Amino acid sequence: MIDLYTAATPNGHKISIALEELELQYTLHVLDLSANEQKEPWFLNINPNGRIPAIVDRANDNFAVFESGAILVYLAEKTGRLLPADAEGRSRVLQWLMFQMGGIGPMMGQANVFYRYFPEKLQPAIDRYQGETKRLFRVLDGQLRDNEYLAGEYSIADIANWAWVRTHKWSGVDVDDLPNLQRWLKAVGDRPAVQRGIALPPSDVLDRADNDDQAAKFAQSARNMLETGQSRQGKG
């Protein structure tokens, strides 16, 4: 049995999707990020960085793993699935996993901050991060031109990238001119395990472009977390 500590974010959904795909038994623990539950001492004992997601593998002497990419690799190696055993196949998957960890996630995260969360609209910053996100989307689209999935067969690389790219509307970036990416988004999104994974916990706004009351409430909550984090850094 695995304990999953998570929230309704792309990084959190990476792990719930993987657990569903790998058919591993787990207990879901949803943290209240707006209340800074992820900074509580009990959770810092699991993840010293104070971020979600994190897991505790009860079947492996309560072994704790943090960082979503590291968790994906751990789960894939634990089950022998979604990560090839041969050196070249494994490397291809890890390359596209690192592409998400070092590119897609950070750029979309910054696009969200400046496009959705900051009260001041700093257009040069918005343009910068939305533009870089779109460039990275084009890289994915090119890879998917001749490949059904990013590293050949469906893998943890697809899970990691899809969990973020599916939220492109929230970041204000369209994919209308990227047919290969659109095809892949639908193919991955149609998988039953993926559908179950993004519902644990459900994300009510990140997959749409609406700016309604619900979206405004979510954005305000994220803004409060940013301001709290900056305040704590200032006291450090």
UniProtKB/TrEMBL annotation:
<keyword id="KW-0808">Transferase</keyword>
<feature type="domain" description="GST C-terminal">
    <location>
        <begin position="86"/>
        <end position="205"/>
    </location>
</feature>
<dbReference type="Pfam" id="PF02798">
    <property type="entry name" value="GST_N"/>
</dbReference>
<dbReference type="InterPro" id="IPR010987">
    <property type="entry name" value="Glutathione-S-Trfase_C-like"/>
</dbReference>
<dbReference type="InterPro" id="IPR036249">
    <property type="entry name" value="Thioredoxin-like_sf"/>
</dbReference>
<dbReference type="GO" id="GO:0016740">
    <property type="term" value="F:transferase activity"/>
</dbReference>
<dbReference type="InterPro" id="IPR040079">
    <property type="entry name" value="Glutathione_S-Trfase"/>
</dbReference>
<comment type="similarity">
    <text>Belongs to the GST superfamily.</text>
</comment>
<dbReference type="InterPro" id="IPR004045">
    <property type="entry name" value="Glutathione_S-Trfase_N"/>
</dbReference>
<dbReference type="InterPro" id="IPR004046">
    <property type="entry name" value="GST_C"/>
</dbReference>
<feature type="domain" description="GST N-terminal">
    <location>
        <begin position="1"/>
        <end position="83"/>
    </location>
</feature>
<dbReference type="InterPro" id="IPR036282">
    <property type="entry name" value="Glutathione-S-Trfase_C_sf"/>
</dbReference>
<protein>
    <submittedName>
        <fullName>Glutathione S-transferase</fullName>
    </submittedName>
</protein>
<dbReference type="Pfam" id="PF00043">
    <property type="entry name" value="GST_C"/>
</dbReference>
